[in-house]
Give the backbone structure.
Amino acid sequence: MTIPVTLPRTYFDAMYQEAADPWGFEDRWYEQRKYSVSLAMLPAVRYHSAFEPGCSIGVLTRLLAGRCDALLSCDGAAAAVRAAARRTADLPQVRVEQRELPGGWPECDHLNWPRLA
């Protein structure tokens, strides 16, 4: 049995301190292709609400927002949350929050997940 490992917030804070986009989400071909494939795999054209854990700097967040009436995106690193919030500031259906998972999982119910009230 494998025990899940959660890296501390300080690890990710250090990554964003060294680089604004430490994984190259904005310009690496691999990441752009991964986003295209991820969006293509979604079975519906439009969603009432969605939750994106680990949004980082919000590149996928912005793409998902075009398919969602409401989108809650989160990340544990404060710098990532600030960047994602800036990237999506013109999208009123998007809310970006700092949350550590799995402990910060949003409350939800089966009819309206996640609650964005």
Q: What stands out?
A: The chain has a mean pLDDT of 87. Strands lie at 47-53, 68-75, 94-98. The longest strand covers residues 68-75.
